[in-house]
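From the methods appendix. Each design record in this collection lists the tokenized structure first, followed by the designed amino acid sequence. Records were kept in a plain field format so they could be parsed without special tools. The example shown here is representative of the layout used throughout.

RECORD:
FOLD TOKENS (435 positions):
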């Protein structure tokens, strides 16, 4: 341990973060207060009919999260602004997904350390409902209904999310997203599941559909959990390029996690938050990361990019038990929450049950049943062969096995829509009626 502090004293920056708890965090690389802007892609990102959202900055300070006596995150601190693309990088199990879920309001604040703060426009947020209104969240898994077309998927999402918009405005919003996300040519194709039997659209197109479903309500902050997971290098680059263009043209604050970015992806990212076992080892741009690695006496191999090499350094230092606070961050984040207030639209709580919701859900389910050949054929044959009484019983009871995959798949979609505030308890009545 003495050797560790001796090494640490050689690399400490002059401006240390005073509020950091060094016994709980590992800080390896210094950062800059003014990272360079990313190089935007040269693509025509069309304008949306909806007004451009206000600029919302996101600040996280001293965020610590412990569950079942296991510390997942340790004093995570960073800030990001509109038009910036922040990448949360780190090996598997380091807390990337947990961090995004906390920021998006999907984890109870009771499990957070009392000193943890999440601020939007310098106003501290303690309400998960407020976070969900301002932050869109795209999970790693694409929870989509494979027997709906791309356009139908977006139209149903618009019906659930844009309640106060007219039918024409919803149609225009969907058409705009189809153009913006490059989905016009596949708008009438089934989403599919990506397997050999039900191929549907490609993996990159399916991921863009998931992004479109989330941004159809135009959230100013967009969080994505490993949007490039399972994609090839070409589709991964297209997704990141899309996010960079979206951040710049729509003035959105975009944060996404990624396991191993390629060289070409690095060009689109503004800042990096590198995590290791829940602790921040670097926050800043790529240039300052390279400078910090050079100051440590390392040379980045040609076959590795700086991010990959930085994580290799951390792993090797951890294995040698000499990775305790080697460098302090040169950027400190100040929270100014005393007099700042953030105005958000007050959304009135609608009734628990909505007839329109049930109508939309039943309409969507009927399309799925009609397009499920095995289930639809079974019920049709029962109607032909049996009498009215027997048909009624068999229609309601005998197709349970065939309906289970649909039930399980739609349940995941419904739970995601409910977490975004699109649905209420109407789906309980819907499930009771259908199943």
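DESIGN:
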């Amino acid at each position: 341990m003495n050797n560790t502090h001796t090494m640490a004293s050689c690399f400490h920056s002059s401006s240390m973060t005073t509020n950091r708890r060094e016994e709980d965090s590992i800080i390896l690389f210094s950062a800059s207060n003014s990272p360079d802007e990313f190089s935007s892609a040269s693509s025509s990102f069309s304008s949306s009919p909806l007004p451009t959202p206000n600029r919302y900055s996101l600040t996280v300070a001293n965020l610590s999260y412990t569950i079942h006596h296991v510390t997942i995150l340790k004093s995570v601190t960073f800030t990001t602004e509109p038009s910036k693309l922040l990448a949360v990088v780190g090996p598997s199990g380091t807390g990337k997904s947990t961090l995004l879920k906390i920021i998006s309001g999907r984890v109870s604040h009771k499990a957070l350390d009392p000193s943890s703060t999440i601020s939007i426009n310098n106003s501290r947020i303690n309400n998960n409902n407020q976070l969900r209104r301002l932050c869109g969240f795209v999970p790693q898994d694409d929870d989509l209904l494979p027997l709906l077309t791309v356009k139908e998927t977006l139209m149903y999402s618009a019906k659930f999310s844009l309640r106060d918009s007219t039918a024409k405005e919803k149609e225009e919003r969907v058409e705009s997203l189809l153009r913006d996300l490059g989905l016009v040519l596949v708008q009438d194709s089934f989403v599919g599941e990506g397997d050999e039997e039900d191929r549907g659209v490609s993996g990159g197109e399916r991921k863009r559909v998931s992004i479109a479903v989330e941004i159809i309500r135009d959230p100013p902050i967009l969080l994505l959990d490993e949007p490039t997971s399972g994609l090839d290098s070409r589709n991964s680059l297209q997704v990141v390029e899309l996010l960079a263009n979206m951040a710049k043209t729509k003035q959105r604050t975009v944060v996404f996690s990624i396991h191993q970015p390629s060289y070409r992806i690095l060009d689109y990212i503004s800042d990096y938050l590198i995590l290791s076992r829940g602790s921040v080892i670097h926050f800043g741009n790529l240039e300052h990361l390279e400078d910090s690695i050079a100051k440590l006496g390392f040379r980045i191999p040609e076959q590795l990019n700086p991010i990959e090499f930085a994580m290799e350094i951390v792993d090797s230092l951890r294995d040698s038990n000499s990775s305790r606070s080697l460098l302090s961050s040169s950027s400190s984040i100040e929270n100014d929450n005393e007099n700042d207030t953030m105005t958000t639209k007050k959304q009135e709580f609608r009734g628990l049950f909505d007839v329109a919701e049930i109508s939309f859900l039943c309409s969507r389910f009927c399309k799925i049943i009609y397009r499920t050949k095995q289930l639809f054929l079974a019920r049709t044959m029962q109607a032909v062969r049996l009498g009215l009484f027997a048909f009624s019983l068999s229609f309601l009871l005998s197709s349970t096995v065939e309906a289970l995959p649909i039930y399980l798949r739609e349940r995941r979609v419904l739970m995601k829509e409910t977490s975004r505030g699109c649905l209420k308890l109407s789906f309980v009545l819907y499930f009771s009626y259908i199943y």
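APPENDIX NOTE: The chain is about 40% helix and 15% strand.
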